Amino acid sequence: xxxxxxxxxxxxxxxxxxxxxxxxxxxxxxxxxxxxxxxxxxxxxxxxxxxxxxxxxxxxxxxxxxxxxxxxxxxxxxxxxxxxxxxxxxxxxxxxxxxxxxxxxxxxxxxxxxxxxxxxxxxxxxxxxxxxxxxxxxxxxxxxxxxxxxxxxxxxxxxxxxxxxxxxxxxxxxxxxxxxxxxxxxxxxxxxxxxxxxxxxxxxxxxxxxxxxxxxxxxxxxxxxxxxxxxxxxxxxxxxxxxxxxxxxxxxxxxxxxxxxxxxxxxxxxxxxxxxxxxxxxxxxxxxxxxxxxxxxxxxxxxxxxxxxxxxxxxxxxxxxxxxxxxxxxxxxxxxxxxxxxxxxxxxxxxxxxxxxxxxxxxxxxxxxxxxxxxxxxxxxxxxxxx
Length: 387
Description:
Layout: E1 2-6, E2 22-24, E3 33-36, E4 52-55, H1 65-70, E5 74-76, H2 83-99, H3 101-110, H4 117-124, E6 137-141, H5 145-156, E7 160-164, H6 170-175, E8 181-182, H7 186-190, E9 195-198, H8 212-217, E10 222-226, H9 235-244, E11 247-252, E12 265-267, H10 276-296, E13 317-324, H11 329-339, E14 344-352, E15 355-362, H12 368-375, E16 380-385
Parallel strand pairs: 1-2, 1-3, 3-4, 4-5, 6-7, 6-9, 7-8, 9-10, 10-11, 11-12
Antiparallel strand pairs: 13-15, 13-16, 14-15
Helix pairs in contact: 2-5
């Protein structure tokens, strides 16, 4: 039996199923793995027995991923599982920023006691005239799980869509509409855009990527939408652009001390993925990742270890070594196996940055002394006997 500790409310209805061979435990000390959502684990006293953590969502800024990597704990996320929910809210923000919908509804509420409200509303509507999205130029920064869906939807709305992503994957490139025009630089993307929507992760090279220089290239009265991460924009530059009228509206999903004071904004409560369907999709993906890792040692969608898949564990024994990405690790592992006369059926070694993962199947079960010898190799973080 494998034991799972859940942190946070994973789904709105509380329905989380792992299936046969798994149970839920009250404390992390009893668990083999953790399923979580938004709790901040920085400073969390993680028990030694935890082998993996799965985050029901894409962002992992609430998890010390590198610290956990050095402890041999694989951290998974669920990229793309909530992408449709985010896409839909981005489209809603584009419409709200263009049509005076909220302002006209506020007018109606403010004049609810007017006995002639039907006629007066007809007169008042001129104050809320907006513009259509069709035919307008829009730039999409980042063409991954969310950005590619947003770009395709904007094509369907009849917009003139441009995309910028120097690291687009083959998968997302194939999924992208042929009517999305890709450009080579961020500056070329921004130039003349009526709308700019951001869909990139927060990294060293994306923090503050939308600042005064980029905003100056947009069309007068442009709309900026940020449903990626709060650090992507230079908040002072955005505020100045709103004050000057360079930006007509800014919509974002991050209520920071600065964004809540900006004029002409729609700021939501980090609600981009806030649907029951998205929660269920994220949970399903995270559960699948945990189960495959615990049962077979396979890794998919980890943020601190490389992808690795050897299928189902069918040999007499499957061993997984989590270690630093250093020279001669394979040689040290195989030297120990040779002393035990172990016959290795298959072996896979993958690396990602400073961390690496080696997994192998043997024809027989290894002696406990061999497993202990593997654990003593310098730069080995953890050795798992999967079967």
